[in-house]
């Protein structure tokens, strides 16, 4: 059974860089799209961006200038980097798999809370 | 692009049916037949309930159904059960081929009375 698990610091200082990793266990990354989402406390979901197993990326225009999504298939991992964070970036961050670029988001990690605070 | 529009809350009694609407524009719901719906219980990750407008993933009850008319998609839950109480989010593809983005509604809190 394929599972996704987010990992990374739970606290980041304002103006610094948020860095998260998602480990894919129980299956291959080949042929899939891997996404990052976030959900501020008591608020709705926001798509951050994704990466195809070939390395092609696509980002939310509102975050594109600060976001990088990368992949290491040898480790079965993909990562999120968000630069110059502010308190508005405090959220639960989810890693999510898609079986195609227009397919639904059918496999979610449990999520990890990242708080931006000094 | 702006978020999709959902009612903040809906409620119903056990056994009843409810419908949650999700309104978009010609650039998202109106352009793609790719609306999906997600159920989220408190403290849990979202779960896919409906995709491509009206398809159910394996394991999702047939009490859940989806539809679309124009720029508005809808999720209907029939035979309400206590376990259906959760937040529900709609999602649609938007933008042009090669530079698509994904939009969500603000979420609808379903209360089972």
Written account of the structure:
The complex is a heterodimer of chains A (118) and B (113). Chain A is mostly beta strands. Chain A has no helices and 11 strands. Chain A has strands at residues 3-7, 11-12, 18-25, 33-39, 46-52, 57-59, 67-72, 77-82, 91-98, 105-108, 112-116. In chain A, the strands form 2 sheets. In chain A, strands 2, 4, 5, 6, 9, 10 and 11 form a 7-stranded mixed β-sheet that branches. In chain A, a hairpin with a 6-residue loop joins β9 and β10 (105-108). Chain A is globular and about 40 Å long. The N and C termini of chain A lie far apart (39 Å). The model of chain A has no long low-confidence stretch (mean pLDDT 96). Chain B is mainly β. Chain B contains no helices and 9 strands. In chain B, strands 1, 3, 4, 7, 8 and 9 form a 6-stranded mixed β-sheet that branches. In chain B, β7 and β8 form a beta hairpin. The radius of gyration of chain B is 14 Å and the shape is globular. The interface between A and B is medium-sized, with 18 and 25 residues.
Question: Which features would summarize this protein structure in a list?
Answer:
heterodimer, A: 118 residues, mainly beta, four-stranded antiparallel sheet, 11 strands, globular, B: 113 residues
List the helices and strands and how they pair.
The complex is a heterodimer of chains A (118) and B (113).
Chain A lengths: L2 E5 L3 E2 L5 E8 L7 E7 L6 E7 L4 E3 L7 E6 L4 E6 L8 E8 L6 E4 L3 E5 L2
Parallel strand pairs in A: 2-11
Antiparallel strand pairs in A: 1-3, 3-8, 4-5, 4-9, 5-6, 7-8, 9-10, 9-11
Chain B lengths: L8 E4 L5 E6 L12 E5 L6 E4 L13 E6 L2 E6 L8 E9 L6 E4 L3 E5 L1
Alpha plus pi helix count of chain B = 0
Shape annotation of chain B: globular
Tell me the strand percentage band of chain B.
35-45%
Mean pLDDT of chain B: 94
